[in-house]
Design a protein that fits this description.
Strand 1, helix 2 and strand 2 form a beta-alpha-beta unit. Helices cover 6% and strands 38% of the residues. The chain has a 24-stranded parallel sheet that branches. The protein has an eleven-stranded parallel sheet with strand order 5-7-11-15-19-23-27-31-35-39-43, with no helix packed on it. By secondary structure, the chain is mainly beta.
Length: 421
């Protein structure tokens, strides 16, 4: 069994175990609205909207569907074919804990509404093998302390101003296991996901492909509170794009704004880019990652990725067209360990792999057998560029080879007031 399958199986077991004694509703109609054909409960004609209304009311408001329970509920979608929602807006907001089991596809038909709107606190939504597509204002919105867990689910072709697929403005937790985010778009931040400052995000064995936004083509991290965390493990980011043209735009895959002492941002075992067109791109800075934080992508002891940092990652063929950092643009503090940077390019900028515009107290550390090969810059620093004063480049047991720069520093460029160790 693959690692991805194990992740999904374990998550599913936990979600099922957590809803013992739940009210169980079978959806056996693809109707996007209420079917409203009274009959024997469970005999058929139960639409998803009716089932969700029963859950919202903890009752049997629609007798086409089984009654919901006052405690946790389960909706099993057993009908074949896509459920295309009508223009009635978002599905009713669940009351408490809800698990929705597929496989099934829920299509918002490009209506300017969320599919699931978790607009109050105290909601725990779990999706198993569910595809959410064509939402016109994010597929899922989380507010308050509501939580989302998605296992083996797909988010495709959703659009919004922020967070094309998922947007979180509260303090809840988002857990994504073996999911796919494809061709989601935001006109502002987070083509796939917009994570608020107080929320936590845990991503495992998940792919982000061809998502786009001005900032954070796939994910926008709007900071970290002291108690929040972002952990990304064994995932892939390919073909994502930051198309914003402002100098502060960027992060083809991820844009990280700021962090507080005690917060954790960890990225491990993850691939950014790949051969040819699989690379992530930014019109401005950071083809893969734009880091603005002085406390987030930071590992205090250089060993345990859970205390933050970029560990065991591959950055290949990512590019920034008009700004610095073909793979990573850094304006804070980052630790990069056991990682490889191959063929990344700052086409008209500095730092083919990493372009750094450090804060006064900032420090870039690349350690533990990291390699920089075949990266290029139209400006300075084929591999790494430190353009600002008072920053440090610390390299431990790392290899730089075959990097090129049209300006100064074929491998490394450092401002006269910066240190290279």
């Amino acid at each position: 069994m693959s690692r991805h399958a194990v992740v999904f199986a374990a998550a599913t077991i936990l979600s099922v175990a957590g809803v013992a004694g739940a009210g169980i509703i079978q959806v056996d109609s693809t109707a996007g609205d209420r079917v409203d054909q009274p009959g024997v409960n469970g005999a058929g004609n139960c639409s998803l909207r009716e089932a969700m209304q029963n859950v919202a009311n903890s009752a049997q408001t629609w007798d086409d569907c089984e009654a919901a329970d006052a405690g946790p509920d389960i909706i099993n979608i057993v009908v074949g074919g896509d459920i295309v929602l009508d223009s009635s807006g978002s599905l009713p907001t669940p009351d408490g804990m809800l698990t929705v089991n597929g496989p099934a596809t829920i299509d918002m038909n490009n209506d300017a509404s969320f599919i699931f709107a978790l607009t109050v606190s105290g909601i725990d939504l779990t999706l198993n093998e569910i595809t959410l597509q064509n939402a016109g204002t994010s597929a899922i919105s989380l507010q308050g302390d509501s939580n989302l867990t998605a296992n083996a689910s797909v988010f495709a072709n959703n659009n919004a101003n922020t967070g094309g697929a998922i947007t979180s403005g509260g303090s809840g937790t988002i857990r994504l296991n073996a999911c796919q985010f494809t061709s989601n778009d935001a006109t502002g931040n987070g083509g796939a996901i917009n994570k608020g400052t107080a929320a936590s995000l845990f991503v495992t064995a998940t792919s982000f492909t061809d998502n786009s936004a001005d900032r954070g083509g796939a994910i926008y991290l709007a900071g970290q509170s002291a108690l929040s965390a972002t952990v990304i493990d064994l995932s892939t980011f390919q073909g994502n794009n930051s198309d914003g043209t402002d100098a502060a735009d960027g992060g083809g895959a991820i844009y990280f704004v700021s962090g507080n002492a005690g917060s954790v941002v960890s990225i491990s075992g993850t691939v950014f880019g790949g051969p040819g067109p699989l690379g992530n791109t930014a019109d401005q800075r950071g083809g893969a990652i734009y880091n603005q934080s002085n406390d987030g992508l930071f590992n205090s002891d250089l060993t345990d990725f859970l205390s933050g940092g970029i560990v065991g990652c591959l950055f290949e063929n990512n590019s920034a067209t008009n700004g610095d950092g073909g793979a990573i643009y850094n304006q804070g503090t980052i630790h990069v360990l056991n990682s490889s940077f191959d063929g990344n390019a700052a086409t008209n900028g500095n730092g083919g792999a990493i372009g750094d515009n450090q804060m006064v107290s900032g420090r870039l550390i690349v350690a533990a057998n990291s390699t920089f090969n075949g990266n290029s810059a139209g400006g300075n620093g084929g591999a790494i560029s430190m353009s600002n004063n008072n920053g440090n480049i610390d390299l431990y047991n790392s290899t730089l080879s075959g990097n090129t720069a049209a300006g100064s520093g074929r491998e490394i460029f450092a401002n006269t007031s910066s240190d290279v160790v």
